[in-house]
Design goal:
Blueprint lengths: L3 E8 L2 E6 L14 E2 L5 E2 L8 E6 L6 H14 L6 E7 L3 H10 L6 E4 L5 H6 L2 E3 L5 E2 L2 E5 L5 E6 L9 H12 L1
Parallel strand pairs: 5-6, 6-7
Antiparallel strand pairs: 1-2, 2-8, 3-4, 5-10, 8-9, 10-11
Length: 175
């Protein structure tokens, strides 16, 4: 049975329960199995040797998630190929692709955690107790050696993350 944490995050003011460990900078990034473009299975090792940004959102079809993903896409435009940026959600890959096409986002790869929820469980952001599974809003930066260098689990699901702190951490990790 997975560890659960309560009181760290709220959803519209109500405390929710997260499944998985509370990761922190310095921890080794856990592996996961997500579904990417073309229904390909994607794991952490597939982007080895690059700094990774995991932009984690509950659903791209909601206003705050849309804003968050667009802001990261704009911020990353000048960061080059040392970076492997991802948006992770429980949306189906088809919905993720449609969102990116509609919003002209080409520099963030999508990862759907719908396969086995392993990203959510291993990164400690899977919400338990809602009518449908969702991921908590979070940002993780993982360096080229699979070490987590930045973590923000947004305390209220309806709020945006600290973009400046995440981008600064990303720039430091890329070097």
């Amino acid at each position: 049975m997975s560890e659960t944490r309560k009181g760290e995050v709220t959803f519209r003011g109500n405390p929710i329960e997260l499944v998985g460990p509370k990761l922190k900078p310095g921890d080794k990034a856990p592996d996961f199995t997500c579904v990417g473009a073309g229904l390909a299975i994607v794991k952490l090792a597939d982007s080895a040797g690059k700094t990774r940004l995991f932009n984690v959102v509950p659903s791209l079809d909601t206003p705050v998630c849309s804003i968050q993903t667009k802001k990261f896409a704009e911020s990353l435009a000048t960061m080059g190929d040392k970076l492997a940026p991802f948006t992770v959600s429980l949306d189906l890959p088809f919905a993720q692709a449609r969102f990116c096409t509609d919003n002209k986002i080409a520099n963030l790869a999508n990862l759907s955690d719908v396969h086995d929820h392993s990203f959510g469980k291993h990164f400690g952001v899977l919400i338990q107790g809602l009518p449908i599974p969702l991921l908590a809003r979070a940002v993780f930066v993982v360096d080229a050696h699979d070490k987590i260098t930045y973590v923000e689990i947004v305390p209220e699901i309806a709020q945006e993350p600290n973009y400046d702190a995440a981008i600064d951490a990303l720039k430091k990790a890329v070097g």
